[in-house]
Design a protein that fits this description.
Blueprint lengths: L11 E6 L6 E7 L15 H5 L11 H11 L4 H6 L1 H13 L3
Antiparallel strand pairs: 1-2
């Protein structure tokens, strides 16, 4: 869906450090996942979402998921994220911003 990606905040990194030594003893990230997935997956863990069908992503219909499966054998969110064409596109865009 156009405009959907802009509503997702980038993951925020939190660090808890020991006050005297400064050693990090806990580190975690938070993401506003409810803007990225359909309601049924909002309370799921990231591992569960990664294993979910691609239609669990907002804006991807079951029909879209079937087309991704037919074209690229993409069945899960993880499959989509690891698809070489997606990775190539991400790398091109990231590097183009440094050009």
């Amino acid at each position: 869906m156009p405009g959907q990606a802009e509503n997702i905040k980038k993951p925020v990194r939190f660090i808890q450090q020991d006050a005297t030594s400064g050693n990090i003893f806990k580190e975690f990230y938070v993401m506003q996942i409810d803007k990225a997935v359909v309601k049924a997956y909002e309370k799921k863990t990231l591992k569960e979402i990664a294993a979910a069908p691609v239609w669990a992503l907002q804006g991807v219909s079951e029909g879209d998921a079937e087309k991704l499966k037919a074209a690229f054998n993409v069945k899960t969110v993880k499959d989509l994220a690891k698809l070489k064409y997606v990775r190539w596109a991400q790398a091109i865009v990231t590097l183009s911003e440094l050009e």
